[in-house]
Design goal:
Length: about 230
Amino acid sequence: MLIGGFQKLTLLDYPEKTAAMVFTRGCTFLCPFCHNPELIFADQDTEHVTEEEVLDYLKEKKKMIDGLVITGGEPTIHKDLGDFIKKVRALGLFVKLDTNGTSPETVERFLNEKLVDYFAMDLKHTWEKYNLIGRSKKEGMIDDVRKTFAMIQSSGIPHEFRTTVFPGCHSEEDFFTMAGYLLPGETYFLQNIRYGKTLEKNLDQSKKLDVTEIVRGLKEKFPELAIEER
Ligand code: SF4
């Protein structure tokens, strides 16, 4: 597994748990607002951390942290991700997996083997407009995302969906459409876009959306969901 970054402690990325976080390299999408562009291409020369370094640290600190967040890039592109997770779990730690949903086979396997304690999945856009953000050239990629989305929804494993609000590409109405995909009791985060370091250097920043106002409207229309701004 290619690891491009390691954060020894996060109090924000695993709900109600203290965790360390690894950033894997390589991704199946090319989101224009990606704020980890150095992690998109697996062959880029970025910080390199070995699995052993991560596992040694976790072994040493396992009494002080609850779990590990695995994020990217897109972690599921790594064939040995499951083996790595098993080693983390063997230390008695919880595992949260962040995914863009493009590998339903991997998520299905992890569900069958009960390897993941919490899923966070991106919901990039409405299904019809998904590839305006993902920009994948692979045929069937959005069907794969939909499969993963449905699998996580019916998994019984704690999970959240989240959308980065990109006014250059989303309309207010799109968030109401996306929230409509969720089931009662599910959690949906709207994340404010972070301009600055992004994959596309000249993002359209002229359009604005009031995320707080959108969240207020969503809560009113979907009281059965847990919707928050992040
Ligand atoms: S924001 Fe998009 S391109 Fe960046 S890591 Fe996530 S899925 Fe990949």
